[in-house]
UniProtKB/TrEMBL annotation:
Keywords: Membrane, Transmembrane, Transmembrane helix
Name of the protein: Phosphatase PAP2 family protein
Domain Phosphatidic acid phosphatase type 2/haloperoxidase, chain residue ranges per copy: 56-166
Phylogenetic classification of the source organism: Bacteria, Pseudomonadati, Pseudomonadota, Alphaproteobacteria, Hyphomicrobiales
Family matches, as Pfam families: PAP2
Signal peptide (from-to): none
Family matches, as InterPro entries: PAP2/HPO, PAP2/HPO_sf
Parts of the chain that traverse the membrane: 24-46, 58-80, 100-119, 126-145, 151-169
Domain of life of the native organism: Bacteria
Keyword Plastid carried by entry: no
Length: 183
């Protein structure tokens, strides 16, 4: 399985360095993708139609985001995978990271947002967020900072987080009504 992971990673990262414009887009996607997604979620707080449900989903996506990143920290206690550029697998387009590679925090965060929207029945928005998440995840391999399997692991932790939040944070509860009534 490692051989396939390396082959896919090398293939995607092999696209880098061929087109300076594409390199710049992928670097920007990697760097600014998550803040833009968070802003896109936050700006929906003042949506008019179906306000209570939308706000519930926004809170759920934020909780999924945070829980996904927390799960990643637990995984990192047991899996210490070095970055692909340190293994000579990829060429790096950005500064080195000090932490381990598996799973990708960027992919987890973005996919957790998308999964929360999808699991709460907001399919159109969820698909837009998932498209953005896939682009962010792809950019992480493209720029050389993650293996393809790091993205698959991130998708698993993102889905686990979104499912856990879906089960634990129920719409219409007293806490939900209190939180969604803010502002």
């Amino acid at each position: 399985m490692y051989g396939l992971d390396v082959a896919v990673t090398r293939w995607i990262n092999g696209l880098s360095g061929l087109n300076p414009t594409l390199d710049a887009v992928m670097i920007a996607t990697s760097e600014f993708g998550i803040p833009i997604l968070v802003l896109a979620v936050a700006c929906q707080w003042w949506t008019r139609p179906n306000r209570e449900h939308v706000r519930h989903v926004l809170i759920a996506s934020g909780l999924s985001f945070l829980l996904g990143l927390a799960l990643n920290q637990i995984v990192l206690l047991f899996v210490s995978r070095i970055r692909p550029y340190d293994n000579g697998v990829t060429d790096l387009l950005i500064a080195r990271s000090a932490d381990f590679s598996f799973p990708s925090d960027h992919a987890t965060a973005s996919m957790a947002i998308a999964a929360a929207f999808l699991l709460h029945g907001m399919t159109r928005r969820g698909m837009v967020f998932m498209l953005a998440a896939v682009l962010i995840a792809f950019s992480r391999i493209y720029i050389g900072t993650h293996y393809a399997a790091d993205i698959i692991g991130a998708a698993a932790t993102a889905m686990a987080a979104a499912l856990a939040v879906r089960l634990a944070y129920r719409e219409g509860t007293r806490l939900d009504r209190f939180v969604t009534a803010i502002l």
